[in-house]
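Kindly review this protein for my students:
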Amino acid sequence: MRLKITILFLFVLQQIVFAQSIPMGSWQVHLAYNNGSDVAVAGTKVYCVANGNLFSYNTSDNALKRISKIDGLSDIEISSVAFDDNSKTLIVGYNNANIDFIANDKVVNLPDIKRKQLFGDKKIYNIYVNNGFAYLAMGFGIVKLDIAKQEIKETYYLVSDVNGIKVNAICSDGEKLYAATTTGIYYASLNSVAISNPTGWKKFYTLPVANYNTITIFNNKIVSNKEGDFSKHALYALSVGDTLWSPILEQFTENCFALNANKAQTKLAVSYYGFTRLYDSNLNVVNTIFNYPSASLKESKPFQCDFDSLDNVWIADGNNGLIKNSGFYSNEKFQPQGPATNTTFKVSINNQNLWVTPGGFESALVNLYNKEGISNFNNNEWKTTEYKYITADSSLSDVIYVLAHPSKSERAYAACWGNGLLEIESNIVTKRYDNRNSILKSRPEYEWTGIGGLAFDATENLWLTNSYTSNFIAVLTNDGKLYSYDASAVMSSQTAASQIIVSSTGQKWCRLPGSNGVLVFDEAGTLEDVSDDKISRIPISSFVGSSVFCLAEDKDGVIWTGTDKGINVIYNTGSVFDDGASAQQIKVELDGYVQYLLETETVTAIAVDGGNRKWVGTINSGVYLLSADGTEQILHFTKENSALLSNEINSIVINEVTGEVFFGTSAGVISYRSDASESSDKMNNVYAFPNPVKPNFIGVVSIVGLAQDTDVKITDAAGNIVAAIVSQGGTATWDLNNFQKQRVKSGVYIALCSNSDGSLKATTKIVVLN
């Protein structure tokens, strides 16, 4: 029997071809890992903090692993890490004073300081581990943790000021604790009861008053760095038991970021801007690590480093993630894939091709001059296009939206706030359209061509908004022609726009920031003939709210808008040019009371999934999933109850094929695999995943590629029906239970799929192993 199942299993595997995707109901982070800031060696694992996120590299199997809220971390924006060799515990510190202990792949959270109302800065700047305790260098003083008990032991205030004093780093010689602060170096006896009181701390007044940003013990000396102007950075050393500090080593114009000694106290690493210099116990130079010629073309920016048992140097680099140096030019780079930055203004997706832009503008719509680069996620691979690589124009900045071409996989278009429209081919700009070389216009006051939104129509023409001009709407045709349309009859030429959508009837809906409402335009399919054009502006007085923040059309042709008073819907889109349009709020019943949908929320993003359900993002309350008519709340994700990175949502898009929902938040991009996808009108590529279903799998099997409202009957090998489900859009989910709510036995099951009128049919096999 086992042999038969094995043969059948192998046969079925040969018939199953499908795209890899994350399981239904699970999350996936899409964060940046290029800006390394801290590192901790933990045996065969090396932990690195980059862009406020955590990842590890395992030297025994070369595995890179992202570690996030999905894996049990309690928070985001990590500031510091340290590893205790005795207890095998990683201590993780956050910007908001939250603390996690990680041991044996389990995370224990200690939120006490985060929750406590304290004066001053609560960020954890550095963690020093010594003799079973972790000392946290914080914005107000020092917190001592008992690692074994995973609790706070004591809090040290070095000065009597109510705000305390910022501590940058800590070290100990076994008798005294030394603290490098913003005004000098303080010390106290470890065994003194007075250490908990400011009177127990003394300051080295022989040192200049300055910010001392790092400190360590090396070869019976306390070594620290004094920050000043770039020509006066200095390293000072104090022999244990002495009171007189002396300058050591040569002077550099570069800033010193960190001081780290190996466990044997035979090597000292000094991290400067541009290089790391290694010294022996006599302070002779033994190696200078810079430029990482075998690892990256980016200049080195070592912020922190650590030594492993073989004295390899592991560097958290501000441009290159994690670097391993094992000798003079022997460098290796380790960095998980991710976007260029966690700064996320907008995400877009077209034909499963995702783009992330960090651009944006201030509330007054003025430029931020953001040059962090644009990022593309396609075929499960991240690529970053930096401005210096896409164009020779050093003034280019503020790409606020990028949209992939529907059928030309290597092409995308970028909307620049002030720099026109860019055509990108294979991550290189091939064309640029602005007021100097096209009919696009600039602001009357100066050379500034502001493109706010992009959208393709059904014939692959690209529609865009040309802000602060009379010809407010333009189109780049599929054959490269450019037309623009005058909107001065309904609006001022001093109006901006940031979003445009093309409705199923061909209407162009444009969001106008501030109190300007919404613009609607229809060229009637004749791009060159303006005589039959129709244009109308729906004033903000037609909406409930003072500003419209987003637009979306659902599968019934209804326009959904997000305002600072929740959601408004426009049903009568066909008469918008004749009788105007009336925006309505949706009434819902909650706890016996009738109220308007999300009326207390500012809605910043709306996306419609394959089941016509609405994913709604807010400015401070996370994400809601609503039923097709908006009257039922299906899900509500916040950073407190889920892996969501932030409650501030800037953008939401959906992979129509897989149903994966991408959230652009104020803390970066994260995605969630929903149970709905776009329906198919052919049902010629139906498959199930995960397949095979492995033992101990907990979750649902997704059957995708279906038509809308497909009936799915699950049968066993003998033809007995064990379950019946209906698809949500193009996806149906089976919980692996039979009609008796019991998990089915091991075997091969067949999904018989038929659309509502029986005109489309498909089957797929599912292997279950228990």
Observations:
- DSSP finds three helices and 65 strands in the chain.
- The first strand starts at residue 27 and ends at 30.
- Residues 310 and 437 are 60 Å apart (CA to CA).
- The longest helix spans residues 2-15.
